[in-house]
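sorry for the late reply, my laptop died twice this morning and i had to redo everyting from scratch. anyway the thing you sent over, i finally got around to it. pasting the sequence first so we're on the same page, its 167 residues, then the predicted structure underneath. double check i copied it right bc i was rushing
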Amino acid sequence: MNTLVASAGAETGAFNQCLTFELAGEPYAVDILKVREIKGWEPARQLPEAPPYIKGVINLRGTILPIMDLRERFGMARGEYTATTVIVILGLESPAGEEQALGIVVDAVSDVLDVRPDAVRPPPALGAAVQMRYLKGILPGERMTMLLNADALLSERDWDGIEAQLA
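ok and here's the structure:
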């Protein structure tokens, strides 16, 4: 058995689950407990003076939800939105300690993995030149998967700007 992934019938008590998805052909993952929902891509209503990675907001069953393009947040080239592009709705902790929903645009959702906590490797220490705050760790394997720290996706300044726009 792979040290990262449990077989379908394995006891899941010793594993954490992660949702995996693709960005620019590379695998990423986020703790499944942060995921609230997955929905198909829909254009967002732009917010004035928002950073380029904040695509705007959508109305999700009466809740105004900010949308972030994860490729742009990570400094990658913007991709085309296709039939596989989805918005993953995350429940994040705001600086005020409250849960706030955020939609992240990803190229495609892949799978749910059972991950052994001891299989997660820490991100490399590369100094201030490279932003590692977005990573909780790396899942080694055939294709290394970057495990994201979902709560770090928005800075305090981002939160302040979004809250001001939505107030």
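The mean pLDDT is 84.
thats about all i looked at so far, will dig more tmrw
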